[in-house]
Design brief:
Strand order of the largest sheet: 1-5
Distance between the termini: 67 Å
Number of helices: 3
Largest sheet: 2 strands, antiparallel
Radius of gyration: 18 Å
Number of strands: 6
Strand content: 15-25%
Length: 91
């Protein structure tokens, strides 16, 4: 399905109305608009001038809304498999 928007703001609003929020791709020549999309879009990741399926292992990958609430990637795996513990020593 392709949906057209009459303005950049409307396009961001339409994207945010989706019930899923894994990753979004924004293509623009205007870096300011790309960064604005990164701030406003309610997705687990926003890729500027790249398809939303792009992924590198060091990137946190995951979604929001009906796309889930977790992240995956090496840093998140280490955190998931580590038990934090506080130990204090008084001299």
């Amino acid at each position: 399905m392709i949906t057209t928007a009459s303005s950049f703001d409307e396009a961001l609003d339409l994207a945010n109305d989706a019930k899923f929020g894994l990753h979004a791709g924004v293509f623009t020549r205007d870096l300011g608009r790309g960064l604005e999309a990164g701030n406003r879009l309610e997705f687990g990741g926003v890729l500027i001038n790249e398809v939303p399926t792009f992924r590198a292992d060091q990137m946190p990958y995951g979604g929001v809304k009906d796309s889930g609430n977790t992240r995956e990637g090496p840093a998140f795996a280490i955190k998931e498999l580590t038990e934090e513990r506080l130990v204090t020593l008084q001299g």
